[in-house]
Design goal:
- The complex is a heterodimer.
- Chain A is mostly helical.
- The two termini of chain A are 28 Å apart.
- Chain A has helices spanning 2-25, 28-53, 62-77, 82-104, 110-129, 148-171, 173-183, 185-190, 195-221, 226-229, 232-245, 251-269, 277-291, 295-314; strands at residues 139-140, 223-224.
- The longest helix of chain A has 27 residues, at 195-221.
- In chain A, helix 11 runs parallel beside helix 14 and helix 12 (251-269) packs across helix 14 (295-314).
- Chain B contains nine helices and ten strands.
- In chain B, helix 3 (97-107) crosses helix 4 (114-127) and helix 3 (97-107) packs parallel to helix 5 (143-156).
- Chain B is globular, with a radius of gyration of 18 Å.
- The chains are: A mainly alpha, B alpha/beta.
- Chains A and B meet through helix 7 and helix 8 of A and helix 2, helix 3 and helix 5 of B.
Amino acid sequence: MTSKRALEVAGMLAAAVALCLAPSYLERGTLNDVWNVALAVVLASAWNLLGGFAGQVSLGYSVFLGIGAYTTVLLALSGVPPAFTLPVGALLAAGASVIIGLPTFRLRGPYFTIATIGVGEAVRVVASGVSFTGGASGLRMPPASFDFESNFRAMTLLAVAVVWIALLVSRSPFGSALAAVKQDIDAAEALGVNSTRLKVSVHALSAALVGLAGGLFAINFQYVSPGSVFDFRLSLTIVLMPIVGGVGTVAGPVLGAILFGWLQLKLLSTPALLNSSLFIYGALLIAVMLFEPKGLLGLVRRLLARRLRRFYVDA
Amino acid sequence: MPEPLLSVRALTKRFGGLVALKSVSFDVAPGEIFGVIGPNGAGKTTLFSCLTGSQRPTSGSVHLRGERLDGRPVWAAAHRGLVRTHQIVRPFREMTVADNVAVGARFGRGRRRGSDERERIREILARTGLAARARSLAGTLTLGDLKRLEIARALATEPDVLCLDEVMGGLNPAEINAAMALVRELRESGLTILLIEHHVHAVVGLSDRILVLNFGERIAEGRPEEALNDPAVVAAYLGDAAPEAAV
């Protein structure tokens, strides 16, 4: 047990070091792809804290990415350095999650999900209409505010950190309360679990992580508009990644994010498939639901078990 | 009667036009086993829901040790030492039996952590006869074990008052005897117990006093033999049959 934990810690540290040094041994194009996958890992794993561990499926996560991104752009335009804009964006995203969560967590199951769609769309419409967001045409970051290598390191380290946080949460008493709420919220409350406080807390943690990613997103693309960060398709993709990978597990969302990150790059580089991303994601989702509800991770586990069985039977 | 531990006054619950509980009042003394019986639909489970806060009573009050509980969330009742089990068992099916009990130990009144928590879980599993199933997934248990798990999780919250809702329903005679022995043992350890039970023999055998409900109203209360022979109770259960048949 303890040696397994030591191995995990070593693996995380190795991944962090390898990613930090990546700019010295990988080409710029590859680094860009890795950055995209790292963003997907952050979004999928952070969403999974609420949607996977606590079973509260939110389709409004673009709000937190958008708040993180806009906080960084707006503060950067008034001369604040990124070291300050990023945490402020995370805090504002967490604050927004509390405001959204308090009323919507009174709803259960699909009603909660539908409410989060409504909140996400309302935020997008309002953001397109007010002037401080730059309206529909968006805002550009101040010039000379971009250093690819530091942005790359920040995003990949954030990805490792989010996976680590997911691992710690999944084993903590906090995580066991989330699992109880997911499996039977009334029984959990009868045993003393304050489910509202629990859901609001995990929502805030998850929103803060997505808010951090939003800040790095703004710095990387140097441009933010309501259509790019408050897009419903973005919220949808954030949900699809963990579901395809294996919802409610630590490794599943990472697998899903790697697959989606890779798919997206393929789709963008193949002109004929450029507009078919939602079609392909939809087909993937249906395939997972029909054949492997535990996602890619479930599939991997099943294949490994079969391989092992064959190995022992043959030997 | 000593100072009551649980005090219920004029508790009423309406669902639209249906009155599920009509001004029910009673007191329960520390260490008592208090049975609640009545025909189907009499309001027994609604009474438990209103006591523990999973439903909000339309009017009336519930006091535990003089502190008002009604209208507060169900987890608040658990933190103050009033906990219930569910008639239709509600295990966390994808957790082990030990992890199910851990939820009560961690988030109930005791707020146990670490080795203290593990010790507590071990003790409760041994007490409820579930030690051998500690590592089984709750979804794989038999009904008898699931009913025991309901009790085990509730105990893990370290209550003063334990509300048992039909923990013997669906069990075979041997399992019922074991469950009755467990309830007696829990009382010996200082717990106060409210018992909803269809199984009249078990309720009479266990309870110090019983409350009989019919259509949400209290029709009798007192020592089991007396309450069961009350003409109103006989009429509610059996129409106009002979009083002896009720026991």
